[in-house]
Design brief:
The chain is built from 4 helices and 35 strands. It has one domain (about 45-375): 7 Propeller (Methylamine Dehydrogenase, Chain H). Helices cover about 10% and strands about 40% of the residues. It is mainly beta. Strands 3-4-35-34-33 form a 5-stranded antiparallel β-sheet, with no helix packed on it. A 4-stranded antiparallel β-sheet has the order 5-6-7-8, with no helix packed on it. A 4-stranded antiparallel β-sheet has the order 9-10-11-12, with no helix packed on it. A hairpin with a 4-residue loop joins β22 (about 225-230) and β23. This is Pyrrolo-quinoline quinone repeat domain-containing protein. It comes from Halonotius pteroides. InterPro entries: PQQ_b-propeller_rpt, PQQ_rpt_dom, Quinoprotein_ADH-like_sf, TAT_signal, WD40/YVTN_repeat-like_dom_sf.
């Protein structure tokens, strides 16, 4: 077993929160444990204990939906941390993907090779579609169609109501990236070193953009530009219509984190231990903040604060303008999950077996390009069937479109899938 996997599967049991005001010991918390809400940023409201959580939480109508490595999808009361229901996939098969909720249905992929549609109220299965391998990609639902990638090298388009397959698009390697759909085009990264643009109706290739290594990061699209990271250490800006490169921003290690764009700035993490803020038009670095370890979590922004997890066990809250640290919370293990902020509350999973709910220190909710595009780990019910590469919030210089937040999307998902794939290869050798 490789060291990274061993560390994730055998986390410590400590529960320590660190804020700018000092350390607060919380002790070991069981399911639906809760603490009084306080005004101190980073204060825990409750923690829901399950197993290693790499999935990014989705919050809809007062319920948190999140996957776990214990082969379950959970629905948890957002106010109290009480379990509402648990949906079991095949035994010993992780649910690392982030769930998407549309019109009362939860869509989520599992390592048991299936894409599931589950009733959001009852947890009852509506349908299941089997693919040829694991699903770590999180589904995107647009105009009645579910788009999701599989380790079997295919991008799938599935009828959201029936589970019937509409088309498949085959790449040359596994797909861990979560697809983004804009103006009738599906954008998704592949292990084949390409960013793919595929017609959402027909499944025909529109263009491909080659990078120097696998693309597990999930793309985001703003004003006609696709932003995506690659294992080749770069963040790319690519013309959404043509596939031509607009600029490239180089980090010192792999970029598995998925970018989000807010007010003309791209925020993305790197395995070089840094969170970067990059000018969306020019590709110039605005600031960089170093954490103690790699960042696989994808950042989210709410009320001028960037929230992101690191495998140094911490969740960070940083000023979006300057990168200045607002507060830091330490969990008991790596934070692969991408945070979602709703009405001043942060929801995030940890490899220490807990879903944490913390005071965000801001009043707002997750915003930015991934809000508009409905990429994994969201808040609100996805209703944006007519997305455009230019939308009101960007043109007016603010990002206040209601609805979705970052998750992860790959968010944590691509990163952990990448590690697992390398670990499996290592073990087989």
């Amino acid at each position: 077993m490789c060291p990274a996997e061993d560390r994730l599967l055998h986390p410590t049991r400590r529960r320590i929160l660190q804020t700018t005001g000092g350390l607060t010991a919380l002790g070991v918390l069981g399911n639906s444990a809760s603490l009084p809400v306080t005004a101190d940023p980073g204060t825990e409201q409750w923690a829901f204990e399950t197993s290693n959580i790499r999935s990014s939480p989705t919050v809809v109508d007062g319920t948190v939906f999140v996957g776990s490595t214990d082969d379950h999808l959970y629905a948890v009361d957002a106010a109290t941390g009480e379990q509402e229901w648990a949906f079991e996939t095949d035994r010993w098969q992780s649910v690392n993907a982030s769930p998407t909720v549309v019109d009362g249905t939860v869509f989520v992929g599992s390592h048991d090779h299936h894409l599931y549609a589950v009733d959001a109220t009852t947890g009852e299965k509506q349908w299941a579609v089997e693919t040829g391998d694991k699903l770590g990609s999180s589904p995107t639902v647009v105009d009645g169609t579910v788009f999701v990638g599989s380790w079997d090298t295919n991008l799938y388009a599935i009828d959201a109501a029936t589970g019937d397959q509409e088309w498949t698009f085959e790449t040359d390697d596994w797909i861990q990236s979560s697809p983004t759909v804009v103006d009738g085009t599906v954008f998704v990264g592949g292990g084949d070193n390409y960013l793919h643009a595929v017609d959402a109706t027909t499944g025909e290739q529109e263009w491909v953009f080659e990078t120097g290594d696998s693309v597990f990061s999930s793309p985001t699209v703003v004003n006609g530009t696709v932003f995506v990271g690659s294992i080749d250490t770069n963040l790319y800006a690519v013309d959404a219509a043509t596939g031509d490169q607009e600029w490239i921003f180089e980090t010192a290690d792999s970029v598995l984190s998925s970018p989000t764009v807010v007010d003309g700035t791209v925020f993305v993490g790197s395995n070089d231990h840094h969170l970067y803020a990059v000018n969306a038009k020019k590709g110039d670095e605005q600031w960089a903040v170093e954490t103690g370890e790699a960042i696989y979590s994808s950042p989210t922004v709410a009320d001028g604060t960037v929230f992101v997890g690191s495998i140094d066990n911490n969740l960070y809250a940083l000023s979006a303008e300057t990168g200045e640290e607002q507060w830091v919370v330490e969990t008991g293990s790596a934070v692969f999950s991408s945070p979602t902020v709703v009405d001043g509350t942060v929801f995030v999973g940890s490899a220490d077996d807990n879903l944490y709910v913390l005071d965000a220190g801001v009043e707002g909710s997750t915003e930015g390009s991934r809000v508009h595009l409905g990429t994994p780990g969201h808040h609100g019910d996805w209703q944006y069937a007519d997305q455009s590469t230019t939308y009101r919030a960007e043109s007016e210089g603010t990002d206040s479109v209601p609805g979705f937040g970052v998750g992860s999307g790959i968010t944590a998902i691509g990163a952990t899938g990448y590690l697992l794939k390398r670990c499996l290869k290592h073990d087989s050798e």
